[in-house]
Amino acid sequence: MLIDEEKFKKYAMMAYEKHLGSAIMLLCDYYKNKGN
User: Fold this and answer.
1) In 3, 9, 13, 14, which residue has its Cα 20 to 30 A from 20's Cα atom?
2) Residue 36's pLDDT is what?
3) How far is CA 8 from CA 2, 14, 18, 20, in A?
4) What is the pLDDT of residue 3?
5) Closest to 14 (Cα-Cα) out of 3, 22, 26
6) How many beta carbons lie within 10 A of that of residue 3, not counting itself?
7) Distance, CA of 35 to CA of 21 (rounded, Å)
8) Distance between CA 29 and CA 23 in Å, rounded?
9) What is the pLDDT of residue 16?
10) What separation in angstroms does the CA of 12 have from each of 2, 22, 31?
11) Per residue in 3-27, pLDDT tens?
């Protein structure tokens, strides 16, 4: 089975950005709760 490299890169970037986004949101929530 051959992997379409372009498609793979696209999905990898999407997954990476999603993960990064959720990590940033978690950090924001953490600091908000810490501030209260």
Assistant:
1) 3
2) 62
3) 11, 10, 15, 18
4) 73
5) 22
6) 7
7) 21
8) 10
9) 87
10) 16, 15, 29
11) 788 998 998 898 888 889 898 888 8
Measure the CA–CA gap between 21 and 27, rounded to whole angstroms. 10
Domain extent for 10: 1-35
For 19, the token pair is: 């993960």
Reply yes or no on whether the pLDDT at 1 is more than 60: no
Alpha-carbon gap, residue 36 to 34, rounded angstroms: 6
Burial status of residue 10 (CB atoms within 10 A of its CB: 0-12, 13-18, 19 or more): exposed
Report how far apart, in Å, the C-alpha atoms of 33 and of each of 13, 22, 25 are. 30, 16, 12
Counting the structural domains of the chain, the total is 1
